[in-house]
Amino acid sequence: MRYELLLQTMTPGTPYEAARVDGLLSERRLTVRSDGARLWTLKHGDVEVGELREGGHVVATELRIPLGEQPDLIREVLTEAAGLARAAEVRLMDPQLGRAIVGTDDVGVVDQYLRTARYASDVTGLSGGLSGGAYATPSSTEPPGFRPGVRFLAIVIGVFIALYLVIDSMLSSLGSG
Length: 177
Description:
The protein is an alpha+beta fold.
């Protein structure tokens, strides 16, 4: 799971100049993996760079940041991507916040990144997300026992067994009488 930022045109509906953004990215530490994926190597980690296509046309460049306990990485990506957006004359969008962002929006973006990472960790049950050090995860505050889905299934099975025993008892008493 990843947190994504988009580089797209300043004016929606106008053609996106991916070549200009790609040219500026190539001036930075951009490497291509053997599978064709492009990685932007930064001080605090790597960011995957991709293209967002609609109707066969490139409409944005995606910056995919790995989720985890890495607020320094998201701050660095935000600063570098905002500079790249200014140089390429495009806007930097955060789809999770639903708005254009600039390099000074780091508090809101980092908070959303950490919420997303914590949610991904809770949903997938993987330790790749946040460890919950600064946050109390719902699973750590729940009393031990069955999860609601397992509890419901056990109740349904119990009702069917009880119903079977009652019907079996009634049929056997009718058959012997």
